[in-house]
Write a structure and sequence with these properties.
Strand order of the largest sheet: 1-2
Shape: elongated
Strand content: 5-15%
Largest sheet: 2 strands, antiparallel
Oligomer: single chain
Number of helices: 4
Number of strands: 4
Length: 141
């Protein structure tokens, strides 16, 4: 059990760190323009990384699930060429610089956030039981 806890936390730290590094490479080296949704996904990846680092499971679950919703929405926009009003003309959300079959940059982000969400939910399933003192009587939750 202790081994899986260490592996889960390690994956929770390594996966968003690699994703943020790849995203920075795409922007800084390849000069791909990041849209509003891409920046919000990066912020949520950084939040997820921070949450795993200091072991805040609620923050990790919220950030990874929110990132999955945003990236899935952007993926749908990229596959259907739907332009959103909040996206700029210089960095539109419906344009992807990378496409491999149905997978775009947002599709890859959706898969990463899905894995992080599953790891966060697994973390909740294995939270240690704590005793609660109610009226002088200890109860196990």
């Amino acid at each position: 059990m202790w081994q899986w806890t260490r592996i889960r936390r390690g994956l929770g730290i390594v996966i968003p760190a690699i994703a943020l590094s790849v995203s920075a490479y795409w922007s800084l080296v390849l000069h791909w323009q990041a849209c509003v949704m891409c920046w919000s996904e990066r912020l949520l990846l950084a939040t997820t990384l921070f949450g795993w680092t200091i072991d805040l499971p609620w923050l990790v679950a919220f950030a990874s699930a929110s990132g999955m919703v945003i990236s899935a929405t952007q993926w749908w926009m990229q596959l259907r060429a739907v332009h959103a009003a909040f996206c700029s003309t210089t960095a539109p959300c419906d344009v992807s610089y990378f496409q491999w079959g149905p997978f775009t940059t947002a599709g890859l982000a959706t898969m990463i956030f899905a894995v992080l969400t599953v790891l966060a939910l697994d973390r909740f399933a294995h939270l240690p039981k704590q005793a609660k003192n109610v009226g002088g009587i200890l109860f196990r939750s």
